Amino acid sequence: MNKQNKNTTPETSEEWPSRILIVEDDPDILQFMSKVLITLGITPTLAEDGQDAIDKLTAGPFPLVFTDMNMPHIDGMQLILHIRDHYPGTDVIAMTGYSEKYGLIDVIRAGAADYMTKPFTLNEIKAKIRRVTRERALLQGLQQEIAKQHLCERDLSREKNTLLEQVQQQKKELLEANTALRIMLRQRDIEKNELVSSFTNRFLNDIAPYLEKLQQPPLQEVQKHYLDILTINLESIFNPDRRGRTFNHTPFTEAEVRVINLIKQKKTSKEIAVLLQVSTGTIRTHRENIRKKLQITNNKRSLYKTLLSIP
After folding, report:
1. Whether the predicted model's global pTM rises above the 0.70 cut
2. What is the third-level CATH fold of 2-120?
3. CATH architecture assigned to 215-309
């Protein structure tokens, strides 16, 4: 009794298909297959021929179908082709005898997942179900992974398109900003030129004539020198390209810069001393220091011409 209970207890340790259709025109084999599936915890659906199987498939597809190959009207090969075309989620295991016309290669090409030769044992049936079920699970898992991959690729493509759109928008905004900046800079140049022109005209019309009148004697020597400096500096403001423009280069000291600017105005050491209210010797010392910094102490090169050549 215990042995009988052990053999008839459903095997629930494995994940068997929930529904299995058995198609067989031999009642003995049909009952044998039914009992085997019941021992596995599966309630089978039985069909006596191909047409009966098609009708039952119409009522609801099955994960797995066992079908005999040699049946009247609609044989097993026709049933396999029908399942392949209409129920791609259904696996088929073909059952055939040695003498039948369909072999392993025929049924596999038609779309069957596996093949059993009659007669077969309980363990062989279990092994076939196990293998087909696992392969189906692996296939479904692979399909899910492929579907996930496609979703990821679609999301990446969308993100890529979004980034490209953002880049294009930023590029457009930068081009617009650059255009606006160029217009602003051009407008500023125009305004600057207009301002320079206005100041130059005012200098020529409102200041220069009076400077000329101030040049008329009687003037003291110091006054004349200061007037010359004032005239040259004003001209350098309104004409920056004038060669006599002020000098402002390092590494000269502030006092040396003042001396340099007066030298460029062709003032002598004595005149510079009077204007800066220092001794002539001090001016000579400044001139020597300037020559040293310009590296022209050991030649007869003109300090005046050297200073004018400096941009």
Report:
1. no
2. Rossmann fold (3.40.50)
3. Orthogonal Bundle (1.10)
